[in-house]
Amino acid sequence: MVTPHSFAEIVAEVARKHLRDDLPTATVQARPITDLYGDPGFHLRILYDGHVEKPSPRLMTGLYHRMWPDLVKHGIGDELISHSFIDKTEDSLWSLPAGPATHLPESNQ
User: Fold this and answer.
1) 46 φ, ψ to 5°?
2) Which segments of the chain are extended strands (E)?
3) CA-to-CA distance for 38 and 9, rounded, in angstroms?
4) For the chain: N or C, fewer Cβ within 10 A?
5) What pLDDT, in 10s, does the model give residues 9-54?
6) Which residues contact 33 (CB under 8 A, 6 or more apart)?
């Protein structure tokens, strides 16, 4: 049986794939969420280094559409996926509960 946290890892991995060219040093974290109607979903938190890179407005608004075909291949497609782009200098420990995290590049783990 696949758990919500396993799906969160898949969502983070897919996001990392689609961010690799635009934000190569970003850290991607995903966590399962439930919306107001009780439907499952995921929230992506993309931490980037504002001194090195900056997400374009097109990337920020189009990430889900870029990811969608790969998510469907993993059986994820109907779930709500929201995302936040956060400069690491503005990050705080309370902004996301502990959960699956994936880092870019692998040497930053």
Assistant:
1) -105, 110
2) 27-34, 40-48, 80-87, 101-103
3) 21
4) N
5) 999 999 999 999 999 999 999 999 998 899 889 999 999 998 899 9
6) 40, 41, 42, 43, 80, 82
Q: How many CB atoms lie within 10 A of CB 10?
A: 20
In this structure, which amino acid lies at residue 106? Answer: E
Q: How many other C-beta atoms lie within 10 A of the C-beta of residue 66?
A: 16
Q: Tell me how far CA of residue 27 lies from CA of 34, 35, 78, 83, in angstroms.
A: 23, 24, 25, 13
Task: Return d(Cα 44, Cα 24) in angstroms, integer.
Answer: 16
Q: What is the phi/psi pair of residue 38, to 5°?
A: 85, 10
Query: Nearest 5°: phi and psi at 87?
Result: -70, 130
Sheet architecture: strand order including 40-48: 80-87, 40-48, 27-34, 101-103
Position with higher pLDDT, 47 vs 98: 47
